[in-house]
Amino acid sequence: MASADKTINTDVPEKDVFAIHFLQSLSNLRIQNLFNSPDTTNYRVRKIKKAAYVSMARAAGGTSRLWSRALLRRAAKGNNKIVRFPRRKRKVTWKISSKRRRSDQRAPVVEDAAERLRNLVPGGGGMETSKLMEETAHYIKCLSMQVKVMQCLVDGLSPK
Amino acid sequence: MSNRRSRQSSRASRISDDQMIDLVGKLRQFLPEIRERRRSEKVSASKVLQETCNYIRNLHREVDNLSDRLSQLLDSVDEDSPEAAVIRSLLM
């Protein structure tokens, strides 16, 4: 079997890392007195959902992954915060614009599906297809972990 | 544009199509549905990508539902119930 020259690392942290980050986000929301005020339900739900995604991005490695960087940047834009990302030392890779992407030469049916995937994964628009695969794998793992954490929380809070 | 292909194959550092197939194969492992089926290795890449898209959409929907339920639960907790004590100890 042809093996990749570089091993692709898709490890995610344990469930409790996600849980701690999420609970911290929730407690921040609580401090903002979100839960006791008669706010519109929709606003509250949106805040919780945003807290879930942001805490997931932080738990999964913060700025070390392309999708989590894109997610945090998007969330910070919504808050009108100025976010500074530390300069990463990385190998020079060309930023390939969508028109001249090298992956245009792969089978077009693969590229169609990859395009749909790009819309779903945060930050996917600027990634080359092979990088997209790697980021997707990590994103899926983190998302399912986050869903597990939230499910546990809901189960624990539901009346018996 | 036609000479780009010959230029590209001469670069050893780029990911080749074989490695691409390998990556897609690895991605397959994370999809619960395909993993359960006993298929040969030759699952088409586009099918895998399609399943991935569906899976991600499902996960997003799950997050939405769970956020909704969490919001209701956190709002409707009685002050004296054991759940309130748990929340207080966890979130404060």
TrEMBL record, chain A:
Localisation: Nucleus
User: Which positions make up the signal peptide?
Assistant: none
**Keywords assigned by UniProt, alphabetized:** Nucleus, Transcription, Transcription regulation
Task: Please name the InterPro entries in this protein's record.
Answer: bHLH_AtIBH1-like, HLH_DNA-bd_sf, IBH1-like
Q: What is its main location?
A: nucleus
* Superkingdom: Eukaryota
Keyword check for Nucleus: yes
* Protein name (database record): Transcription factor IBH1
- Organism, scientific name: Camelina sativa
Automatic annotation (TrEMBL), chain B:
Q: Where is the signal peptide?
A: none
Which keywords does the record carry? Growth regulation, Nucleus, Transcription, Transcription regulation
Q: Which InterPro entries match?
A: bHLH_dom (IPR011598), HLH_DNA-bd_sf (IPR036638), PRE (IPR044293)
* Residue span(s) of domain BHLH: 4-59
Glycoprotein recorded as keyword: no
Q: Where in the cell is it found?
A: Nucleus
Q: Which domain of life is it from?
A: Eukaryota
Mitochondrion keyword on record: no
> PANTHER family from the xrefs?
TRANSCRIPTION FACTOR PRE, TRANSCRIPTION FACTOR PRE5
Its protein name is Transcription factor PRE5
